[in-house]
Fold this protein.
Amino acid sequence: MKRNQKGFSIIALILVICIILVGGVIYLSISGNRETVNEEEYGYEPISNGENEAIGYYYNQLSKPAKIMYNTILANIDQLKIGNGTIKFPDSVGDSIKEINGDVDDNYFQTAWDAISLENLDLFYIDTQNLSISTRTTSVLGYESYGFTLEPRGGKNYYSSTFSSKEEVDSAIQKVNDIADEILYNAVGSTYDKVKYVHDWIVDNVEYDNDGTDNNDNIYGTFINKKVVCEGYAEAFKFLLDKLNIPCVLVYGDGYDNSGNVEAHAWNYVKMDDGKWYAVDTTWDDPLYIGSVNSAFTNSKKYTYFLKGAKNFNESHINDGDVSGTGQDFKYPELSETDYKR
């Protein structure tokens, strides 16, 4: 009887060892197929620019998984430009979710895309409704790993209706940059002079769109069609100031007119030489803007919302950091209490 028990114990031990060995082989196989993460491309370190703190301003507020997604997308941007490429995110995304005790179903991709959209304004060729993120969960012997892939929704492509090929996208980006550089040729002098010049060019050359024109919410619509809604105004303002290396961020929220009517709105905060941030709303400074806020404006009144402090500006503007309703509450720079004085 004792001999049989001993024999059974030996057999059981052998089975356990075999299970461990098989599990180890499977685990090593999975680990061996894991993507090698190039931290220079797909890392999560803070973005720092001593001369312009607006660079990476929203990226730096992301969680670690979202930061890796942000960097992976930008490192593989040609997959978006060709219209139907896929981007497989590195396994470090899943590892970082575990590290922060996060939930795999949280909106890491959407918050990453929000930050990308706020900071990289030359992605106007993408229809965000066509972006789809798929999640894959693999479990082996209790060990779970997560995989994420970005791909076109419904087998379509990423493009907005204006574009149909990478060649068209590259040509449009080049054209936008050429026009922007031409505009900035005369942007000289102090920081105030440059900011005022950009503000005036937009107010004088862009028309508010009430017709639903294509690209009316991005810089392509601003520089090519010159007919946009508030997002197009605000994105163009930031795009031009980025080229001048003047700190500027996009801000989303609600605008209230004198009658208390509210509308979803976009504007900018810009940092001046005194080290303080001020608000600029080029849309509401446009004398041709059709709306009760300033429909009666004349050219002499187009600086009503130019370099304003919180005391005046926040009477009609309330910012909202939850850009797409995901729960990611981006923090905006703190405005100066008073208006800018030269």
User: Anything to note?
Assistant: The first helix runs from residue 2 to 32. The longest strand covers residues 131-140.
